[in-house]
# Entry
Amino acid sequence: MIEGLSGPFANTGEAVFRNLVWAVERVNARGGVSLPGGKRQLAIERFDSKGQTEEALSLLRSAVDGGIQVVLQGNSSAPAAALIEAINKHNERDPARRVLFLNYSAGDPTLTNEKCSFWHFRFDAHADMRVSALMSVLKDDKALQSIYLIGQDYSFGQAVLREAKKQLTEQRPDVRIAGEELHPMARVKDFLPYATKIKASGAQAVLTGNWGNDLTLLVKAAKEVGFEGTFYTFYGNALGAPAAIGDAGLGKVVAVAEWFPNVEGVESAKFYQSFRERFPNPADDYVHQRMQMMVEALVQGMERAGPRLLKTTDGKTNLDVAALATALETAEVSFAGQTARMRAADHQVQQPMVLAVMDKAGQPGVKFDVEGSGYGFRTLRTVPAAKAEQPHSCRMMRP
# Structure
């Protein structure tokens, strides 16, 4: 795993690491990966990129030199794009030690469109898919007349605002865009000036793809200035955001994800409770089902590749990453009541999207709160995978 584990987004990197550790532990607890010759255990190593693209590229070189052939990253699309390019070049140059890139969060749509790569697989919905899912709720809010768009100024944040404007024009042309703004990523310490502008604009709602501290500080500032509108978010369900906004967010903070703790079903509840047993500290309560799906898909791909997975060249045994990637193209995983499948054409996962709204724990549909805050997220609707699916422009080049 190459991820920012220090710096302004360290909490998001550590949350990822907990999820991946737990996924690996579960695989190993059942014996590991079934391969010809016996079971093999998985191991995960962490590399701290400090959230910097150049550092991520340097760590990629270190990982490859250390014999690692499967790289995981996701928090921020900028390093993801750079890693895809670097891995493409490396795999062409050194086919005996090819590298596979599994992406659990980087949501810039270009990564599985014009920048798609045979060596890259995305296990999260991209920005356009998430905006479309949010619009399924927003378009039914007939009282909404004005909205403010705000995001982080990099490829992902720009993509969110671009798609939001497009879909608002198509589906709610009656809604006025009261303002649109991109702010420096991970460098704003005081969001009060932004919150003041949002309130002064008269907007009844905010749509944002912000994540990490950039989201938490934004909602804190909105509360301070007395903004009482709705927040349509990608990640408003954890990392301090619910506690920061408090009762003012009841019924007004909407989030979209592949899963929430209060999704109905015995398997879902068991999945969530087992994570909390493994990580009982309330501050560690941020569960990503897609990361469990990703590791399960990796195991499935390894086992499907079977005897083709390991190859020996010049006395050294390495993964045949081309064989593994080919097997991953048709991966389909069911886990905790949810199912995800990989689309071979662009290596973009296809899965249902869940919309949920903030409410008090104990209310109907809110069995679990998040981070010990007393607030949880109640399911509003589920968008089936077939409806969440988006067209692509990928021209996949296969070896």
User: Anything to note?
Assistant: The mean pLDDT is 96.
